Amino acid sequence: MTNDPLPIRKLVWVSVFAVAFAFVEASVVVYLRAIYYPDGFAFPLKAIVNHHLVVEICREAATIVMLASVGMLAGRNSWQRFGYFCFAFGVWDIFYYVWLKSILGWPASITDWDILFLIPLPWIGPVLSASLIAVLLTICGTDIVVRTSVAKYFKPTFTSWILAIVGTVALLYSFMSDTEAILRSGNPLPYRYELLVLALILYVAGYVLACRPVVRKKAG
Prior knowledge:
The protein is built from seven helices and two strands. The protein is mainly alpha-helical. A two-stranded antiparallel sheet has the order 1-2. A hairpin with a 5-residue loop joins β1 and β2. The model has no long low-confidence stretch (mean pLDDT 90).
C-alpha cells in the first residue's frame, strides 16, 4: 500500500456535507413537529398518519444511502470508505441535534427522549445515547481514514468482530426493548444506561484490538 498524504481536505469537505445534510434532516423534523407536536415534542408519542410513516421510513433509508455514498466516493479502499462513512454519520448526527437546539430549543436536556430510528423497529432512547455513539463514530472514523491513508495497521481480528457484535446487540436491545411504548402511546421504561456503557466499552476494546498488529511467536 502506498502512503497518501493526510486527507485533511477530504475530511473537511465530508464535514461540510454532513453539517449541511444535518440541517436538511433537522428541517424535516421541524415541519413534522409543527404538524404533530405544536405544543412541543414529548412522550407519549402521537399517532402518525400511515403515508407519513412510510415516507419517514424511506427518508431514513435514503439518509443511510447518502452517507454511505459519501464514504464510497471519498475513500480509496474498503476500510477507508467505511471510515469516511462512520465519520460522516457521526458529524451528521451531532449537528442534527445542534440544529434542532438552535431552531427549536430542543432538547432541553441531553437526557430527553427521542425517536432515534425506525428501521426495522422504532428505536427510542435519550439524546445522550445517540450523541455518545456519534462522537465515537466520528473519532473512530477519523482514525480509520488516517490509518488507511498513511499505511498504519488496521485489521479487525475475530475477537474484534465478536466484541462489536455483542456490543451492537446490547445497544439495539437498549433502544428497542420497549418499543411497545410507541405502539401503546405510553411513556417508555427507564433507559438501560448500563447496556449503553457496555456497548461503548466493547466497541472501544474491539477497535483497540484492530489497531494492534498480531505478534506471532517464533517456533522453537
